[in-house]
Amino acid sequence: MPIRPSSARVSLDRLFELAEVLGAMMQRGVAEHGLTTARAGVLWALFHEGPMTQRKLAGRRGVTPRNVTGLLDALQEDGLVVREAHPTDRRATLVSLTDRGREVTTGLRGGRDDLAAVLFADMPPGQLDDFTVSLAQVIERLKAVDPTRQR
Cα–Cα distance between 24 and 28 in angstroms, integer? Predict the structure, then answer.
């Protein structure tokens, strides 16, 4: 059964509202740690995927290598990341979190986990599962229709 256009518009309006509210909360949350969302994204990628080259990190974040260099300069100055020669590729630089970088990122994760607990604490598991599946579908469709997204 096709979705009614007015229902689709209302759903998209809700997604825009969600993006606005979450974006503002995220900016405030990372600012509490002295970060921008771009810098926090770099830390998050390193936290989840481990050390990687600057080029791979730029690709993961969807930014140019020049842009990631600027982000890493600031993060290194703050003692959150370290850049070292790659052990097998002398042309590459390997980026890793420092102990302080892991602490900050762990704090960010804790804030995220606290918010998840507040938002979804009393939602029945089946409803939460359905919500998660629906969000995944919407995200995939958004990625598919985004003309600027690299494929």
Answer: 6
Which residue type occupies 21? V
**In the chain, pLDDT over 70 holds for what percent of residues?**
95
Q: Shortest CA distance to 18 belongs to which of 151, 139, 122?
A: 139
Could you tell me the pTM of the whole model?
A: 0.81
- Phi-psi category of residue 112: left, alpha or beta, with phi > 0 → left and psi -120 to 50 → alpha: alpha
Query: Which residues does 81 contact at the CB level (< 8 Å), separation at least 6?
Result: 42, 43, 46, 72, 75, 95, 96, 97, 98, 101
**Strand pairing report for 52-53 and 81-85:** unpaired
Cα 138 off chain centre by: 17
What digits encode the pLDDT tens for the residues 40-58? 999 999 999 999 999 999 9
